[in-house]
Amino acid sequence: QILLDPGSGNILNAKGSSILSMYVEPSANIFQIRGTYTIQKGDFKFSLLNLSTKTFTLENGSTITWTGNPS
Q1: CA–CA separation, 7 vs 36, rounded Å?
Q2: Single pTM value for the model
Q3: Whole-angstrom Cα distance, residue 44 to residue 69?
Q4: pLDDT over threshold 80, residue 4
Q5: Under DSSP, is residue 49 helix (H, G, I), strand (E, B) or coil?
Q6: Do 40 and 60 touch, CB atoms closer than 8 A?
Q7: Closest alpha carbon to 44 in 67, 12, 3
């Protein structure tokens, strides 16, 4: 589960697999993730200003790709 923004209530739940590479250098404040996560099943809960929410189903085979700094 990934809470995308604590103030928004947007939540990503997914199960899948990947090979990710991480690089961390605390002294230089560097944190990087690279790779592709392939989703087997999951959902995305979207909240609009905490007034309305909609849950989207993630399709098998969908991907999330990281290309460096996650912020």
Answers
A1: 27
A2: 0.71
A3: 22
A4: no
A5: coil
A6: yes
A7: 12
